[in-house]
Amino acid sequence: MKAPLYEQVTAGIYQCPSVLINGYYLKSRERGSMNEKPKPTVGYTTDGEGRWWRTERQPQCSVEDIFGLNCQGVWGHRGVHWAYKPEGSYAYWKNESDPTSIGENVGAGWTPPDHESYVNPKDKRTEYFGQFHSTIEITDPKLIQRLENDDTPEEDAFVDKPLSPEEIKRLEDEGRLPTKPGK
N or C: which end of the chain has fewer CB within 10 A? Predict the structure, then answer.
């Protein structure tokens, strides 16, 4: 009889040993290269009335667990890789670049929301990759003119503008936006 993939170590907490079926080690999969840091995402946003902002977001960690959960930390973080499962459980797994990130002989685990050791998402906000960003207001008139024409200084940056009344109407007609009550 094979050992279960996850075993209950205390009431409600499940862990996976680091050595699994047929002696293979549990390893996280990378969605990209951990050796080469991905570029930050750069975007430009306007209020539609002449004011513009540039936002630069740091990349998300490129590691996923064996079940396909993407780590929700920022690229290059220390400590365990972590994510929240669809039903809300806190999942964590070994960070190969930080060997002390998890207990010895533990490869991964999860804790359900009703357990006393549960890590609330509010407590992980400061580690969430979406928190690692900076925003500045654009005041250079030449750059603003370029942005008005959807021309960004960076090759892969995006421009986010409010929809025009015509664009809103077209999307409502296509059923891609709900129509406002009274229309």
Answer: N
The two tokens of residue 56 are 């630069």
Tell me the Cα Rg of the chain. Answer: 22
Instruction: Extract the runs of DSSP E, i.e. beta strands, from the chain.
Output: 7-10, 13-17, 29-30, 41-46, 52-57, 63-64, 81-84, 90-93, 106-111, 133-138, 158-160
Q: List Cβ neighbours of 85 (8 Å cut-off, separation of 6 or more).
A: 69, 91, 110
- Whole-model pTM above 0.90? no
Distance separating alpha carbons of residues 114 and 164, to the nearest angstrom: 46
Q: Kind of pairing, strands 29-30 and 63-64?
A: antiparallel
Q: What is the pLDDT of residues 72-96, one digit of tens each?
A: 999 989 999 999 988 999 988 888 8
The rounded distance, in Å, linking the Cα atoms of 69 and 84 is: 8
Two tokens at 98? 């930080």
Q: Give the pLDDT confidence of 99-142 residue by residue, as tens digits.
A: 788 877 777 888 899 988 899 999 999 999 889 999 999 999 99
